[in-house]
Amino acid sequence: MARVAGRNAVFAWFVGVVSAAVVVTLLVLAFPLFPAATQWIAQAGGAQPTGEPAPAASGAASDGPRTCRDLYNEASWAGLRWTDGAELAESTDPPVSTAEELVEALEPAVVVTCRWTSDEGEISTTVATVPTDAGAVAAAALPAKKYTCGDADGRVRCTRTDGDLIETIEAGGDRWVSTSQRAWHPAGYADGVAEAVWPAAG
User: 105 and 196 share a domain?
Assistant: First the structure.
């Protein structure tokens, strides 16, 4: 059987074009997956994902909690989340406190405010940085507002109860924590938060 001149060359050229088109199509389809794959490989190798800072070493003053989740151990977190109707709003809102004059005077630089609402009631906790004499200022000013102040592992803790409202203000070093619990009073709440903010004393 006679062979037609040029047929093999044309066929090979056609197959080459189709193959190249298939490869280009696959590359286009796979391109969106490249960032995720790169991030997965980096995490698997122990590297931090691009754009996210590496965690600071434990113990430094700047290592305090930065998010609401940082404030609670596993048991506390589960207890709060599983309370009927529980919802959490995270923000940098000013502290919720009846000690308004003290808050205005100290001007706490809010790191995070965690506002919990549920069928039980409300809890608002603020972590902030303050001048290092904030504890002394609080201890001098808050008793006039019916707070009881005392030493708590080298920090100043002031508490006030008014009906179903319990308020706690705690200051040590350059850190401040204030909590307002209205009707909802999880056991050991203030102590657990303090252990997260001042871990060396926990």
Answer: yes
Nearest partner of 194 among 171, 165, 167, 173, judged by Cα: 171
- Whole-structure pTM value: 0.68
CB neighbours of residue 90 within 10 Å: 12
Regarding whether 68 and 20 lie in a shared domain, the answer is no
Last residue of a domain, one of 37, 54, 71: 54
Is residue 1 packed enough to be buried (19+ CB in 10 Å), middle (13-18) or exposed (0-12)? exposed
Q: Do residues 86 and 184 both lie within one domain?
A: yes
Task: Give per-residue pLDDT as tens, 101-123.
Answer: 999 999 999 999 999 999 999 99
**Tokens standing for residue 172:** 């040590």
Contact assessment for residue 179 and residue 116, using Cβ atoms and an 8 Å cutoff: no
131 shares a domain with 193: yes
List strand residue ranges (DSSP E) for the chain, in order.
87-91, 109-117, 122-129, 148-152, 155-162, 165-172, 175-182
The structural domain count of the chain equals: 2
127 and 179 assigned to the same domain: yes
| Range 133-157 average pLDDT | 94
Q: Which range marks the domain in which residue 142 is found?
A: 61-201
Give the C-alpha separation, 37 to 15, whole Å.
31
The mean predicted confidence, pLDDT, of the chain is 80
Segment (H or E) for 153: none
Model pLDDT for residues 26-53, shown as the tens digit of each residue: 555 555 544 444 443 343 333 333 333 3
